[in-house]
Design brief:
With 320 residues, the protein is mostly helical. 75% of the residues lie in helices and 0% in strands.
Length: 320
């Protein structure tokens, strides 16, 4: 059976750890404890890689919020929460089966974390350059994720492809979120990069909708998110908008909505896991049933062969 990521299991997690982080932590604990059937190795690998990507992007979001949150929000996005997020991400990246991320990137990530927690006056531009470490790690993980999702010889390939597209959507939205947070209205180049990442996210989200529609899975919430971003003022932002002074509203509206949407997409992703699990279990059951029938027929033929030989000899003797 496919790993049941939704077993009610409560490991030691900081009390104020974000709910998305708690879900990641539980998924990791259960996946390590369960013994996956050999038939499901590609499926389990795809889902695990997806969780690694989401753990990294969750950490990027919370680091960004911690660095730029106001005094009220800082009570939530504090160092204790960050350390909880670091713990969750490390449990994924330090998994013995995780050979995808080189140590050099992990070390760069650890140094960045230490500086965030110990140095209070880091320069904004230096932070923006170093926070790209999350994008570098996820870029490598996504290469493996799409490989496993699209080369799986399984009837659930479409559902696994939808999983990849959804994870890619969330990662691109997370990158756009960080870029917008670090941007000023005069920094058009960075805003344009955020627009590009948002456009890529919409392409992947549209692909997710198409895959799920074929599977007859409800896509209403995804379509509502698509409509919001397609009409977002961020996509239309250009140099003519600088004089209007509307950047504060545009950036605030985008970041707050995106933060909430990412949590909604996480729930959709978890629900999609249930569908993949059930489909994979059904496929394996059918395959094993077919195998049992084939073996049964073969055994009948083998046991009947001596009788057939005796009958043939008797027939030949009678003819002679």
């Amino acid at each position: 059976m496919l790993i049941n990521f939704f077993v009610e299991r409560f490991p030691l997690v900081p009390e104020n750890c974000p709910k998305s982080g708690i879900r990641n932590f539980r998924a990791l604990e259960v996946s390590k404890a369960a013994c996956a059937a050999p038939d499901l190795v590609p499926v389990n690998t795809t889902l695990s890689l997806g969780e690694m990507v989401l753990a990294v992007q969750d950490e990027r979001i919370f680091v960004t919020r911690h660095l730029f949150s106001d005094s009220r929000a800082r009570d939530f996005f504090n160092e204790t929460v960050l350390q909880g997020m670091f713990l969750i991400t490390d449990r994924w990246l330090d998994d013995e089966s995780t050979y995808h991320v080189p140590n050099s990137l992990k070390i760069a990530l650890y140094h960045f974390r230490e500086d965030i927690l110990s140095i209070s006056n880091l320069k904004k531009e230096d932070l923006f350059k170093r926070i790209s470490i999350y994008q570098q790690i996820n870029a490598m993980l996504l290469v493996y994720l799409v490989k496993y999702a699209r080369t799986t010889n399984s009837a659930v390939w479409r559902q696994l492809s939808a999983t990849y597209e959804l994870v890619q959507t969330m990662d691109e939205l997370s990158i756009a979120f960080t870029m917008v947070t670090f941007s000023t209205p005069e920094n058009l180049e960075r805003i344009q990069k955020a627009q590009n990442h948002l456009a890529v996210a919409l392409e992947h989200l549209q692909s997710t909708v198409q895959y799920l529609e074929v599977e007859r899975i409800n896509t209403t919430e995804l379509e509502e998110i698509l409509i919001f971003y397609k009409t977002s003022t961020l996509l239309l932002w250009n140099e003519t908008n600088i004089a209007t002074g509307a950047w504060h509203y545009t950036s605030y509206n985008f970041t707050e909505k995106t933060y909430n949407f990412l949590d909604n997409l996480r729930e959709i992703h978890n629900n999609l896991w249930i569908v993949v699990r059930e489909s994979a279990a059904t496929e394996i059951w059918n395959a094993r049933r077919t195998l049992v029938l084939g073996v049964s027929v073969l055994l009948v033929v083998l046991f009947a062969a001596p009788v057939l030989v005796v009958l043939l000899q008797h027939t030949l003797t009678t003819i002679q």
